[in-house]
Amino acid sequence: MRSKYIIPLIFLAVLLYSGLSLGNTWINLFNMNQQELNIIFFLRGPRVIFGLLCGMGLALCGAIMQGITRNPMASPFTLGVSASASFGAAIAIVFLTDNSLTVILGAFTSTMICAFIVFICALKKEMESLTMIIIGIALNYLFTALTSTLQYIASDDKISAIVKWTFGSLNGIDWQNIWILLVILIPIAIFSQRKAWILNLICNCEDDYSITLGINPSKERLFLGFGALILTSVIISTCGIIGFVGLAAPYISKKIVGDNHKYLLTHSMIIGGLLILISDILGRTLFSPMIIPIGIILSYIGVPILINLILKRGEAR
Q1: Global confidence as pTM
Q2: Among 12, 27, 48, 125, which is most buried by a count of CB atoms within 10 Å?
Q3: How distant, in Å, are the alpha carbons of 16, 133, 176, 182, 302 from that of 305?
């Protein structure tokens, strides 16, 4: 099992080095002058580290959501988080200001409202996985319609700002964003890893069987799902919509380490970090000095991978 972690970790180390050294100008990390040191510390360093943590967090949330819903195609965005974040950001941009802090707070508040609605409604049905998915899909359409309404009445520059935010980007990331994300990511990662055996139980067994073992599946879904949504909300409110990682990383990891969440959660985080770093490096170097938003690059890379994996899964059956 260790060998299945070694190669991804080696790739991760290579990508971290490449992400720091590549850009408009190549920087030798072992021989830097003061100007290059400032570029690494204030620009590339925060961007690369946040990108790594962002990928790890989204992948972790995707693995959790797929487990508690018993749906390999589920992700935190299945519950309407991305659409609600876009709506919150749009409100901030249209009616307040496009200041980054205001937009972050608007997106985060909206995602929390969405999460609250999902779980309140799902609790009435004892946190059934199908109920959560259906409510999430409904809210996704609702918030999408609300965002479209705001775009319809907004000025051209406001519309441009909204669309640009939805692309997903690591521009403007600083060390404060990293510390905030770490404060949320670390405890949720530890908590979910300790609950790995419960995730295995929920994912593979009916709720009645879990109850006979003294496990309350509704309560576990609530805690795990809410933690995943909080982490997702923090990430996307900071860098915009980056939705593919939470779906693809767990799917890829299952092909490598299987569906035991003891190994799946950690491996998914590594794969998620790889996907984000690859996308960011390509976005910064393909058409340099122009930077392509990471959400766009990630879709180009990830969609063919996911389709290929799904087709192989169908052939295996």
Answers
A1: 0.91
A2: 48
A3: 22, 24, 33, 29, 5
Q: What is the pLDDT along the chain (317 residues), one digit of tens a residue?
A: 677 888 889 999 999 999 999 888 888 888 888 898 999 998 899 999 999 999 999 999 999 998 888 888 788 778 888 889 889 999 998 888 767 788 888 988 998 888 888 878 877 766 667 777 888 888 889 999 999 999 888 888 888 888 888 888 888 888 999 999 999 999 999 999 999 999 998 888 777 777 887 888 888 888 898 898 889 888 988 888 887 888 889 988 988 998 899 999 999 999 999 999 999 999 888 887 788 888 888 888 777 777 776 676 655 55
Name every residue whose Cβ is closer than 8 Å to that of residue 138 and which is 6 or more positions away in sequence: 80
Rg of the chain (C-alpha set): 20
Alpha helices in 92-174 (DSSP H): 100-123, 129-153, 156-166
d(CA 123, CA 221): 10
Q: Are 95 and 154 in contact (CB under 8 A)?
A: no
- Alpha-helix residue ranges (DSSP H) falling in the chain: 3-21, 34-39, 45-69, 81-91, 100-123, 129-153, 156-166, 175-194, 196-204, 207-212, 217-239, 245-257, 261-285, 294-316
